[in-house]
Amino acid sequence: MATSTYLSTPVTTVNGIDLTDQCTGATVNINYDQLEATSFGDASRKYVAGLGSHSITLDFYASFAASETWATLSTLVGTSTTITVQPVAGSESATNPKMTLTGCFIATLPIVNALGALGTISITANGGVYTTDITPA
Amino acid sequence: MSYLIASDKLGKIGDLYVAKAGINVSALLASGFITELAEVSTTEEEKPAKTKPKKAPKE
Fold first, then answer.
1. B31: helix, strand or coil
2. Would an 8 Å CB–CB cutoff place B35 in contact with chain A?
3. Chain A residues closer than 8 Å to B22 by CB
4. DSSP per-residue string spanning A21-79
């Protein structure tokens, strides 16, 4: 049963800047390399976690106004930064975890302009250290 | 180096900005979200040496 409905409450920050009012989608991929650990005597394959290989994809409206998406993202291309995504604004908790990717790399900044539609920017930040904060600040 | 918040997207404008780990401060500076706080000197300026003006020789 679906229990999480994302309407207007998720909070998204990029490099400490709150871009929630420009964000329309966030995909957090928590991923670890799967290392084979099966040995003689095992009846089934076993695996252990290797290096973390996480990523976050964010979809924004393209706003060129001061302090908005372009101002925030254009200086981050080709550098590392920190991105946070939280389901609901407010204190972190077990039911409202703040997902943080620290030191993730933004390689490209694709800006989509289409006739009769709002411009959009979708970024994917790769790598970095993933943490989940459930302790109220 | 200290910084001041220059955009309400980061906090209260004019407050001291303390960067958390992983924040790209150079990008924030380049985009104008923060500004460098001019260093205030805590040492007193040296006073110029007191020199009495020479009196014009009497004729």
1. helix
2. no
3. 80-82, 102-103, 128
4. GGEEEEEEE--EEEEE---TT-SS--EEEEEE--EEEEEEE---STTSHHHHHTTTTTE
β-strand partners of A37: none
- DSSP states of A83-114 as a string? EEEESSSSS-BTTB-EEEEEEEEE----EE--
Give A20: exposed, middle or buried? Use CB within 10 Å, 0-12, 13-18, 19+: middle
pTM, two decimal places: 0.82
Nearest-by-Cβ selection for A67 from B9, B24, B26: B9
Which residue type, as a one-letter code, is found at position A81? T
Q: For B14-43, what is each residue's pLDDT tens digit?
A: 999 998 889 999 999 999 999 998 765 566
User: What is the ipTM, given to two decimal places?
Assistant: 0.80
Residue for token digits 């976050």? A56
